[in-house]
Amino acid sequence: MKDLTQTDAEALIAKLGANAREAASVLAEATAERKHAALIGAADAIIASESAILDANAQDMRFAEEKGLSPAMLDRLSLDPSRIRAMADGLRSVAEQADPVGRVLAEWDRPNGLHIQRVATPLGVIGVIYESRPNVTADAAALALKSGNAVILRGGSESLHSSEAIHQALVSGLRQANLPETAIQLVPTRDREAVAAMLRAQGLIDVIIPRGGKGLVGLVQSEARVPVFAHLEGICHVYADRDADPDKARRVVLNAKTRRTGICGAAECLLIDREFFAKHGPVLVQDLLDAGVEVRADGELSQIAGTIPAEPSDFGQEFLDKIIAAKLVDGVGEAIDHIRRYGSGHTESILTENDATAERFFKGLDSAILMRNASTQFADGGEFGMGAEIGIATGKMHARGPVGAEQLTSFKYIVTGDGTIRS
Amino acid sequence: MKDLTQTDAEALIAKLGANAREAASVLAEATAERKHAALIGAADAIIASESAILDANAQDMRFAEEKGLSPAMLDRLSLDPSRIRAMADGLRSVAEQADPVGRVLAEWDRPNGLHIQRVATPLGVIGVIYESRPNVTADAAALALKSGNAVILRGGSESLHSSEAIHQALVSGLRQANLPETAIQLVPTRDREAVAAMLRAQGLIDVIIPRGGKGLVGLVQSEARVPVFAHLEGICHVYADRDADPDKARRVVLNAKTRRTGICGAAECLLIDREFFAKHGPVLVQDLLDAGVEVRADGELSQIAGTIPAEPSDFGQEFLDKIIAAKLVDGVGEAIDHIRRYGSGHTESILTENDATAERFFKGLDSAILMRNASTQFADGGEFGMGAEIGIATGKMHARGPVGAEQLTSFKYIVTGDGTIRS
């Protein structure tokens, strides 16, 4: 969908960016109480606008059906009263979190009497580019506002009406709290040129967070001139070590793969130590087969009835489905080598009772999240106790792992002296 | 200087990048003792190679004189026994710092029994692009090594022989500690195409740190596809509030401007509250004039004998010289507005005995460093107690303010359960 010229799109984003920058300077100084009030006001307004939101969503659904969207996409797009309540609850839960701005992150004294504090500040302006789920409008805006940032939201073109109706409710919360309405802005066009302009908006947008499939995230990562918090894929590994407790291993492997297969923390590859396999047999693979998982097995493992032989391309693949790649390895060293080669730096879990082996796994890998005797499905801001997340990042810079309100802050140094001069 | 094609330069950086990545994976697991040994070994080797380093430097100096470099540039380039000793001392001082890798930055328990730790890890591969000072070779390599990162150094073309001789000493330290020699690599060419290839080396280099003048930093900031830690300019402001103690104010203003005028923390603009001026007269300006500073004064201030009238372009200018812009303002609000408009986000200092006014200054501004009753010349990693710095950053992402070894780390999450699964 392209009608805007590049110049038009850049002018539009420049205008939204200037509004956002102005709002951000107000938000940076806003009290915790006022941000809390805006979020609670927005939650109330979401509930009060239920029928308007449902009408807007119905319009989007008709359009999407005409366009022939897949049932999965239609499901992501669709809203009902319970999903609307969940959005309002999400806003309330973020409202009740501790305010991340102004926290003293570190402080120390210098021999010359200077007192130095590192204090959390907002990042500034956050751009969020997402696909069909309209609830991202509320979730992303809530975390941005909590952390004192202005946000520019560019929802999927399919969800434009739904997003607009939700945006209205959010703005009503801002208005009630006497905060600038431009603290939360929605890009008012379906035109894709606007996305391209956001990606180039250095100086206007401080960080871009893409929410969606690999196509969207890959595009954003390769084109953006603005910093990006994202993960491209969640190719999560579970490694069952020779010193694993077999009961714990069975429980964790099954949960890591099957609890929900479509999320980024779902396991995509099972590595089994040869000694574990010799001692305990094919239990881990059998459990998966019994649960209806397609096991693409390498080497000896493919002799287990019900598995299918793995192709080389099955390793390093994000299935997001009831499919798993499986392979025998010679100990933790080979597991580490495999994960370094095929992993995506998201989340990996080792199953072992051996502290030294776990330590080696933790040291040898540099994924954002490393686990021991726990399901990779815990890779989630809510499960980490962060209250909510805007996504999971695998970059090395700034925010890594689940990105909650705290991760949307930067810091500044406050240095206090008493007429102190440098010699 | 261009002989390499773009393809050649990219192949060269790809090779250095692959070496660095391999070295980085060894460094990430290296013990604190081994990194310490490599730094001490390098310091000893620097001292032992004094004559070789001085010979190489003499060669660079001859070349630079033929090229007609300015006396200031020649001074930055030149080495003598005391500068060589200072380099070795710098390496020893970084060696003695606490190891920043593996620190537990935060840890907490979840109700389901999971224990979560956030643990510091190296960033990976750091690219440093610098101008004529050959000592940056040792300083940057030391901080990178301490923080477990591999480094690719691209020194000024004028200092190539000096940098090579210093690099030899650093490599000898790595060798003695049995760490990979490719942990510290020097780009072996004067060709500028190599810089361009570094700036595009996404995936090979994790962060670029430019050290040099505005021309270099501006180029890096605008062209880099890799994250950059840098500041473009240090347009530092000092604001003398109505509630300033006049003695402290005189001491700090004079020091902030005159201690060293060529560093990024030197004050470039003095803002004086009208009430302070009415009460205490022109003392602050007079002190500067007496110290031989050219005061470019706005409005009434220009009536002080010895000042010269300010042009609009004097505000927001980084003089790096015995020159300062000066202006009267109506209180802290106008000072904040002025600094927001003309500052570069580096360092600003307020002189006041009034806590509420200081608080307003700290809240209203978002420079990397904000000070009270202290000289802006303290904007320095050493003065902050970080031991050493690789530079000062004004970006909002990741590292901000002085960048020491700690700021060259990222983190990962270590999650420990007991067969814990997600419901």
Automatic annotation (TrEMBL), chains A, B:
Span of domain Aldehyde dehydrogenase: 12-281
Protein name per Swiss-Prot or TrEMBL: Gamma-glutamyl phosphate reductase
Q: Which gene encodes it?
A: proA
Phylogenetic lineage: Bacteria, Pseudomonadati, Pseudomonadota, Alphaproteobacteria, Rhodobacterales
The record's listing under PANTHER family reads: DELTA-1-PYRROLINE-5-CARBOXYLATE SYNTHASE, GLUTAMATE SEMIALDEHYDE DEHYDROGENASE
Location in the cell:
Cytoplasm
Alphabetical UniProt keywords? Amino-acid biosynthesis, Cytoplasm, NADP, Oxidoreductase, Proline biosynthesis
Q: What is its EC number?
A: 1.2.1.41
Q: Out of the domains of life, which is the source?
A: Bacteria
Going by the record, the broad EC class of this enzyme is: oxidoreductase
Query: What job does this protein perform?
Result: Catalyzes the NADPH-dependent reduction of L-glutamate 5-phosphate into L-glutamate 5-semialdehyde and phosphate. The product spontaneously undergoes cyclization to form 1-pyrroline-5-carboxylate.
**Record GO terms (molecular function):** glutamate-5-semialdehyde dehydrogenase activity
Extract the Pfam families matched here: Aldedh (PF00171)
Q: Which organism is it from?
A: Paracoccus aurantius
